[in-house]
Amino acid sequence: MIVIFEFSLNKESDKTLYLQLYKKLKNEIKNNIPADTKLPPIRKLAEKVGVNPATVVKAYNLLAEDNLIYKKVGSGSFVAPTQKVIRPETGENMLEHGQIKLSENINLASAAPSKELFPVEDFKYAINQVLERDQGEAFSYQKSQGFLPLRKSIQKYFMNNGINSSLKQIQVVSGAQQAIDILSKILLDFGEKIVVEDPTYFGALQAFNSRKADIITVKMQADGADLAELETHLKEKQIKFFFTMQNFQNPTGVNWSFEKQQQLLKLAEEYDFYIIEDDILSDLYYNESRVKTLKESDEKDRVIYIKSFSKVFMPGLRLAFIILPDKLLPELLEAKYATDISSGGLTQRAFDFYLREGLLDKHIDLQRKLFRKKYNLMTAEIKSELPAEIKVVYESKGGLYLWLKLPANVDAKELYQAAVSIGLVFSPGYLFSLNNIFSNYIRLSFAAVNEDEIRKGIKLFKKIYYEYLGKEIDQEYSPLL
Amino acid sequence: MIVIFEFSLNKESDKTLYLQLYKKLKNEIKNNIPADTKLPPIRKLAEKVGVNPATVVKAYNLLAEDNLIYKKVGSGSFVAPTQKVIRPETGENMLEHGQIKLSENINLASAAPSKELFPVEDFKYAINQVLERDQGEAFSYQKSQGFLPLRKSIQKYFMNNGINSSLKQIQVVSGAQQAIDILSKILLDFGEKIVVEDPTYFGALQAFNSRKADIITVKMQADGADLAELETHLKEKQIKFFFTMQNFQNPTGVNWSFEKQQQLLKLAEEYDFYIIEDDILSDLYYNESRVKTLKESDEKDRVIYIKSFSKVFMPGLRLAFIILPDKLLPELLEAKYATDISSGGLTQRAFDFYLREGLLDKHIDLQRKLFRKKYNLMTAEIKSELPAEIKVVYESKGGLYLWLKLPANVDAKELYQAAVSIGLVFSPGYLFSLNNIFSNYIRLSFAAVNEDEIRKGIKLFKKIYYEYLGKEIDQEYSPLL
Predict the structure, then answer these.
(1) What is the CATH number of the domain that holds A263?
(2) Closest partner residue to A344 among B86, B341, B347, by Cβ?
(3) B175 in reach of chain A (CB within 8 A)
(4) Same domain, B325 and B460
(5) How far is B341 from chain A (nearest CA, A)?
(6) Do the Cβ atoms of A115 and B99 come within 8 Å?
(7) Which of A95, A235, A337 sits opposite B16 (nearest CB)?
């Protein structure tokens, strides 16, 4: 399809002709012309509107800069498909998930801990103590790298968890999402190649997309990403970093094996790339002993480590930490400054107080017990209630996520819509991938629900699943005794 | 100068030759080769290392993508000057400014209000009331658009200040810097053209640079930016937005005239661009009546309005607001999500409480009186103490900044270094511009100092100024009476 334009330019105007032409074309393209329509050849259009071919070239160049048109070598210019940096459908869905009222739904989508578990009184005490002590200082601009005593207390926390880092390597940020965003700023130029696990965390994809990264995916396996697949890519392309969640990955729940961790570190050294380890869940192991972070084994300073407590503490505080290699420090500091100057003063100070009082460790221990119970309940309910064709893909004894595979003919997005209508929400799998291969997967989380809701939720899921398949569920009767 | 390489590739390796070559060249360029050195022609290098010319082309392309080399049409490839997205010297300087201890210096650099003026007790009361009321809810993830009651109370605040907006147009962010950063994300692709006032706010330049914008500058005049100069650019280039501070601009203190505001709005309509109005100081007018924001006159929804209270309230809270045109709302919400999910819950709620109690207006009235006094004192001290060749360029009766022009032969950066050594800091003018035309300008602020320090600071400035010129100051003796 080719398009013919019917307009003329104003040669009396003091606006240059090519800008006039550019605006007219832009307007047409945005409003009237479908994607992949061919634009008139340069000479033809020049003749038609009575200008020099160079004028058309300039106008087309501006349109290409706007990503409104693209050129195919030897065949001319075409209207580009409407693109947004972030896939709108996905974005809006996830935002909706975040905003769901717990009271109205059974929420198996949210991975945010339920607010009843927050240590509000303890933290209120911390805030008041800090305000008494620091007064207005707590409300001043803070250092961009973060409140020094907090950096010291989190350094100690890391050490107790097997991670040694120098104080200057620790940066305070406003949550793990900000960590990902700031790291993208310093590491990614447009078109830079990176690798992510497939599927992976939705918000990370958004941040990488916003820097127009060239995102390569490698598939997840029961013991971590497929490293053979990774190496195939590494042999062909220089990548900037590999983004990974090593423990109880979002959304699969996968826990990397120690062997694969060692292999990954070796690959990073051999093929010269960074690893960004996003650790939000390593504290939630349900076997006896804690799991290993990649950072613990990182002797060559290849791992940029993000630590957030938002899944076990209070996400509304918006606090997280980055440990990063020395040579990235100045750039990171500048990027933090350009992002929001510094993180909030009061929350940094109160969290520091809370850490020093040893309250965080106690709180996490408690959370681990509660979550373990819910994990066991949910896996049991899935096994006893749901038909055998629905499978938990990986069982990792930790974290907040269960990744379920449904039969290939089930569209999880349609299932989701049916579920919403009866007050149940979960996360359809397609949200977590750039590839179109998870349409029959879903992620269930038990973070925001209590035991009753888990039982009810799985029953409701069964109901809509059978309805979707057009099957009826047997009515259950109990004998009157 | 041309460089000759002495290395060979491993043809037995399973890494592709062009990646091997790319890495070797990258390593050489980063460590050994000065900027603007010419690289060997493609054929020569191909012969030398025994590969296909296509292999060299691929390697050179990767280096160009990394911005390590640049091509001159017809003359080959050259080593690029070391570039950082953000000019490192500037960045580090500004960060130092933000971190200076008031107790050790007379700080005429910082525009942060001194912490003695913060209403700590009132805000502590607000925090405790909110925690009593909202409990764990205050520490949950918040909606990405912001806490609804806060959006309502700030809408009312805007209305009282002449700005009408719908509720859905209001977005809560973590400070004005984050507002600039997020707006850059949704509006700027690499190479997009924008216009800024010259000089302008340092942190804005950082954010725009981080998106690799093509930044055009127009000079400031006593009544606002030079709109004739702006229009010259508009006739030639399509710009995405004009970034401006309409009232008591940073660093010049300039207050736009109503006439120029109207002209600017007309230009935006005619040449189809947005205006980002960064309003951090309109509350600090020292004449009888308040000044006009551009947003008040914005009938066509051209103005994206950023409002922060960090200069009159408590900057460590990290809160600000954006009013933006309807059609940008979905993208903004997604960008906020990808940036840090949401702003902190407790601070949003406490600030809302504080607003509703009418405490902010009272606090700002008080601040205005205090700042007016300091403004008058500082301008008087400059006039009485400093030699006539040092001029306050614009006098606008408002804000926190005085922009001083020194004689052309004075290098303000050298003067700054001399000043630091005797415990005085201010902002050298070059920080606020991409052009090299403000080397003999400085910005003084009286935000963080008391009246005594203003007097002492100007005297110290006089001292180092005369020392810099190699002049002696008359020793002053007072008669013993």
Answers:
(1) 3.40.640.10
(2) B347
(3) yes
(4) no
(5) 7
(6) no
(7) A235
Locate B82 and state its tokens. 């070391």
> For residues B125 and A84, what is the distance between their CA atoms, to the nearest angstrom?
44
Give the mutation candidate from B337, B349, B351, B367 for the A interface (greatest A CB count, under 10 A): B337
Of B185, B236, B316, the CB nearest to A138: B316
Do B318 and A343 make contact, defined as CB atoms within 8 angstroms?
yes
Token digits of residue A315: 């996400």
The alpha-helical segments, DSSP class H, found in A81-166 are 88-99, 120-134, 148-160
Q: Is B181 on the interface with A (CB under 8 A)?
A: yes
Per 3-state DSSP, chain B is made up of helix, strand and coil in percentages (nearest 5) of: 45, 15, 40
Contact state of A174 with B340 under an 8 Å Cβ cutoff: yes
Of B15, B135, B314, the CB nearest to A235: B15
* Predicted TM-score of the model (pTM): 0.79
Domain of residue B285, residue span:
117-358
B 114-153 residues inside an 8 A Cβ radius of A: 115-118, 120, 123-124, 127-128, 131, 135-144
Residue corresponding to tokens 């960004």: A276
Does one domain contain both A296 and A428?
no
Angle formed at CA A92 by CA A89 and CA A94, multiple of 5 degrees? 105
Q: Considering B33, B58, B79, which residue would you say is the last residue of a domain?
A: B79
Cα B292 to Cα A105: distance, rounded to the nearest angstrom: 47
The vertex-A188 CA angle with A187 and A191, nearest 5°, equals 150
Torsion of CA B429, B432, B437, B443, to 10 degrees: -20
Q: Are residues B278 and B420 in the same domain?
A: no
Chain B window 394-453: which residues touch A at a Cβ cutoff of 8 Å?
none
Neighbouring C-alpha atoms within 13 Å toward the C-beta of B444: 28
The reply to whether B326 falls in a domain is yes
Distance separating alpha carbons of residues B103 and B467, to the nearest angstrom: 25
Supply angle C-alpha B280, A147, A280, rounded to 5. Answer: 100
B193 in A contact zone (CB under 8 Å): no
The token duo for A205 is: 């994809």
Based on the structure, what is the number of domains in chain B? 3
Find residues 292-351 of chain A whose CB sits inside 8 Å of chain B.
310, 314-318, 330-331, 333-335, 337-347
| B142:A316 CB<8 A | yes
Tell me, yes or no, whether A423 lies in a domain: yes
Yes or no, beta carbons of A136 and B143 under 8 Å apart:
no
The answer to whether the CB atoms of B316 and A88 lie below 8 A apart is: no
- A295 and A154 in one domain? yes
Count CB pairs under 8 A between chains A and B: 250
| Single residue among B307, B324, B358 that ends a domain in this structure | B358
Say if B337 falls within a structural domain: yes
CA distances from A311 to A110, A112, A280, A316, B432 (A): 10, 6, 7, 11, 41
Per-residue pLDDT tens digits of chain A, which is 481 residues long:
667 777 778 888 877 888 888 888 888 887 777 777 888 888 888 888 888 888 888 888 888 877 788 877 667 888 877 643 333 333 344 433 333 333 457 999 988 888 888 999 999 999 999 999 999 999 988 899 999 999 999 999 999 999 999 999 999 999 999 999 999 999 998 789 999 999 999 999 999 998 989 999 999 999 999 999 999 999 999 999 999 999 999 999 999 999 999 999 999 999 999 999 999 999 999 998 899 999 999 999 999 999 999 998 889 899 999 999 988 998 899 899 999 999 999 999 999 999 999 999 999 999 999 999 999 999 999 999 999 999 999 988 999 999 999 999 999 999 998 898 888 999 999 999 999 899 999 999 999 999 999 999 999 999 999 999 887 665 555 555 5
Q: CB under 8 Å to A197, separation ≥6 — which residues?
A: A217, A218, A219, A220, A225, A243, A244, A245, A249
